[in-house]
Amino acid sequence: MAFKKPSAQVPVPESPDRLFRDLPRRKHPSLYDHQGQVLRTYVSEALRAPDVALQLPTGSGKTLVGLLLAEWRRRKYGERVVYLCPTRQLVSQVADEASDKYGLSVQAFTGSVKNYTPDAKAAYLDGNKVAVTTYSSLFNTNPFFEDPDIILVDDAHASENYIASQWTVHISRSGEDQSLFDAVASVLKSQLSKTSYARMIGERDGFDDMTWVDKIPSYKLSEVAQELQTVISQNIGRSDQRHAWSMLADHLTACQLYITCSEIMIRPLIPPTWTHHPFVGAKQRIFMSATLGAGGDLERLTGRTTITRLPIPEGWDRQGIGRRFFIFPERSMGEQETLDLRRSLMLKAGRSLVLTPTNGAAENIQEDVKSTLNLPVFTAVDLESSRSNFINKAGAVAVIANRYDGIDFPDNDCRLLFVEGLPRATNLQERFLMTRMGANLLFNERVQTRVLQAVGRCTRGLNDYSAVVVTGEDLPGYLTDRRRRKHFHPELQAELEFGVEQSSEVSASTIEENFEIFLEHESEWETANESILETRSNAVQEPFPAMGELASVVKHEIVWQQAMWGQDYPKAYEAAREVLGGLNNHELRGYRALWHYLAGSAAELASAQKYADLGMQAKEQFRKAKDAAAGIPWLVELAHGRDEQPTVDEQNDTVIQLQVERLEVYLQKLGTVHNRAFTAREQKIRDGLRDGDSFEQAQVLLGEHLGFSAGKREADASPDPWWQVGDVVIVFEDHANADPSTAVIDATKARQAASHPDWVRDHVPNAVDARIIQPVLVTPSKKARPGALPHLVRVAYWELDEFRAWAEQALVMIRELRRSFQEPGNLAWRAEAATALADAVADAPGLSGWLEKRPARNHLEETP
Questions:
Q1: pLDDT, position 444
Q2: How many CB atoms are located within 10 Å of the residue 854 CB?
Q3: Order of strands across the sheet with 783-784?
Q4: How far is 345 from 677, CA to CA, in rounded Å?
Q5: Which residue has the higher pLDDT, 550 or 435?
Q6: Residue 356 pairs with which residues in a beta bridge?
Q7: In the chain, what are the helix, strand and coil shares in percent, each to the nearest 5?
Q8: Exposed/middle/buried for 752, CB within 10 Å: 0-12, 13-18, 19+?
Q9: Which of 271, 578, 617, 791 is the most buried (most CB within 10 A)?
Q10: Rounded to an integer, what distance in angstroms lies between the CA atom of residue 561 and that of residue 554?
């Protein structure tokens, strides 16, 4: 018989939880109560809502809930359903789970559309199978999935970069985009200060230059938009960026342009998903996440104004998934001991996973494992299609760079996880808003979610357990800080408190012994586990501040972006004012500054059309932005208008804030988990300043310790150290080895000191246009030759012992500041630091002003 018999219509249950019982091939015995609860709530409260969000903790069966929703809607309503995952590896993982565990037949789509088989495409298009694919398969300029009815977005907390990528151009200073970078940089040069341009093209290579990020003000971007469009279009060629550029080319004034020493990024603040028909045209979008947040973050990530949130299942607000034993080796051990411990634990565990923030760090660890432990090493590429080669090894190490979610090792797959640092920001926009605008509060939940995803890679179910070894510059401080810990889930609070206690004032052998007890997971560990449960019972999770305000304004933020995208600048201005009306909490000052700036930019663009009355309003908004986020030079410029110069006080405030930002980077680099590196640096400065032979090098370190860019060059007629922040430079001529009883400043020494400003302008990067260059003579001498005095009118005098006493007070002040330092971008700490520096006369403008009033000619006695 050649003809096929038509398929019989099978009745579909009234809710997805009942559908599970009708799956004959399932190996999973039944749904958990919380899974059924979520599915029934969806049917009763969100069946026809355009946008729905489901929150289920990691390891609680979120994938099964999503697959049942997808399959139920496909069967009941005959809909085309697309299930989105962040990576190919997760697509394979979801498809395997659907088939092997739940008896569901789905169709996985990965790779190029041209490689999709006719059968696979027909299965989706005819509504016969749910399509499981990556975000990028939907969010691109020519997707196969043109008109889905239902879109399920898995791991929605990780969706921002994947969704925004369709409207984001990344131009790297190296690699295939180098010529494009150079071309764009040539256009931007006219809109940047000499310092910023030098940083962008890589002429500056200090640590703070490497971490620097800034943005081109919108009015400057609008001035060069046409030229930029031409240059990018002519130079982008076959670059991977050409597709995203095609989405942005006609909307540059609706975008933000960020710059660093290695990358230029162009993107809108909020991805304009309303312009992408495959996404906006769906009947319903279902967002699934381990955490949804309470501050409107999901709406900002997805460009949707109203998302119906279903409540977290009862009981999950206190109980977590699996058990983690946190180890913080750097609380008790130095760098070499920590490295030795890592090797020892890897051998004891058999299989282990290492997560690192950079490829360079991953390569170093891979080489160390191969050379010292002789264990096979697996990378993310090795694990992309299958994890079986790794988990079938008795001993192996997986080393993954810059991937903190999507790679799961449940059950006995892996009992040891190393997390070696964690980037707080994953793109330039986040970095700018956190470190320059001080809008950290906006990202508190996003950063917390990334941390939770990182530490939970090996605890995916209720019975899983894994040790988590935390090292690096930022993550240990983040997890061990009690001020942050109160915002964590009670289970995690208890695990962290236990881990901190077990990692403090202990030896490596003790940690190894405890790790062995944890691996055995018998009676000795049961006693320890009871203490964690007791701590959990008393822990309370406090919400982050101002989440209600952030949630209330997000719909206006999206309206602002929509209006900017459509060049309706008056409407954008009104939407920005609506945002500002809802941001009242004092901790939102940095975010409020951003929206004053955005309001001003919209008003200025409107005034350039036919709404001239908005010109004054633009200036007022820029002034408020400058007052709220002090220290951003172009905000000061905007506040005054293009033809009006900032006042001296405003210029000095900008310099102080730049110094504070440098100090933040410096303190973060030294670490906050323990005092060893910080104390060692203090001691090196103190010891060096006491010794005439090492005085100058200690002076360089002291400048860095205070937030200056400090340097010294051994060359003919070069000065001793110089300290620089912005357009203020202090340059030293030291006389530290001189005998106080016999030392006399002669004409040669005086002329040398007086000539240092000219040398600085010629040799120190970005000092040619410095507003202040103050030379200072540091000496125990009280006398000068008659020929020296005429040269010492503009050279300051600083008696050696007075300098040492001042330096000691400055060191004490920085230590005090460090006690309250948490992370870069905290505006309250910045204000505290600026005040402390000024009070200690250690801020660049204050110190140079104080020195200016101490001409050496007035402090040295003339002697024949």
A1: 82
A2: 16
A3: 744-745, 783-784, 861-862
A4: 25
A5: 550
A6: 401
A7: 55, 15, 35
A8: buried
A9: 271
A10: 11
Question: Rounded to whole angstroms, how far apart are CA atoms 123 and 109?
Answer: 11
- The residue with tokens 């939970």 is 456
Is residue 70 a contact partner of residue 282, using CB atoms and an 8 Å limit? no
Interatomic CA distance for residues 109 and 239, integer angstroms? 24
CA 600 from centroid of its chain's CA atoms: 26
Q: Tokens in use for 861?
A: 């006695």
The token pair at 760 is: 């600085």
CA distance 647 to 365: 51
In the DSSP assignment, the letter for residue 157 is G
Q: What is the pTM of this model?
A: 0.87
pLDDT digits (tens, 9 = 90+) for 185-218: 999 999 988 888 988 998 876 767 788 899 998 8
- Six-digit token string for 658: 């730049």
H or E element in which residue 754 lies: helix 747-763
Residue 475 has pLDDT above 80, yes or no: yes
Q: SS in 3 state form for 316-356?
A: CCCCCCCEEEEECHHHCCCHHHHHHHHHHHHHHHCEEEEEE
Instruction: Return the structure tokens found at 213.
Output: 């990020």
User: CB atoms < 10 A from the CB of 498, how many?
Assistant: 19
Residues pairing with 216 in the sheet: 257
Q: Could you write out the DSSP letters of every residue in 680-736?
A: HHHHHHHHHHHSTTTHHHHHHHHHHHTT-EEE---STT--S-EEEETTEEEEEEE-T
Q: What is the CA radius of gyration of the chain?
A: 30
The closest alpha carbon to 200, from 727, 612, 766, belongs to: 766
E runs forming strands in 154-289? 169-172, 214-216, 256-259, 263-267, 284-289
pLDDT, tens digit (0-9, with 9 covering 90-100), for 143-171:
999 999 999 999 888 788 889 999 999 99
Task: Tell me the three-class secondary structure of 838-859, residue by residue.
Answer: HHCCCCHHHHHHHHHCCEHHHH
At 404, phi and psi to the nearest 5? Answer: -115, 5
Cα–Cα distance for residue pair 409/565, rounded to 1 Å: 43
> In 75-175, which ranges are E strands?
81-85, 107-109, 131-134, 150-153, 169-172
Q: How many CB atoms lie within 10 A of CB 368?
A: 17
CA 706/CA 844 separation, integer angstroms: 9
CA 390 to CA 403: how far, in whole Å? 17
> Strand, helix or coil at 521?
coil
Question: What is the Cα–Cα distance from 55 to 846, expressed in whole angstroms?
Answer: 52
Where do the H-state alpha helices sit in 486-566? 490-503, 508-520, 523-538, 547-565
Find, among 735, 734, 724, the residue nearest to 774 by Cα: 724
587 burial level (CB within 10 Å; 0-12, 13-18, 19+): middle
Instruction: Return the bridge partners of 54, or none.
Output: 288
Dig out the tokens for 745 from the structure. Answer: 């400043």
Backbone torsions φ then ψ of 246, nearest 5 degrees: -65, -25
- Buried residues in 49-69 as b, exposed as e (16+ CB within 10 A): bebbbbbbbbbbbbbbbbbbb
The structure tokens 């200016």 sit at 852
Sort 379 into a burial class: Cβ within 10 Å, 0-12 / 13-18 / 19+.
middle
pLDDT at 9 over 80: no
- Provide the token pair at 517: 């007890």
Q: Would you tell me the crossing angle of helices 633-640 and 614-628 to the nearest 10 degrees? A: 150
From residue 624, give the alpha-carbon distance in Å to each of 430, 620, 630. 22, 6, 10
Dist CA 87 CA 135 (whole Å):
8
What was the pLDDT predicted at 56? Answer: 81
Contact status, residue 91 vs residue 133, Cβ threshold 8 Å: yes
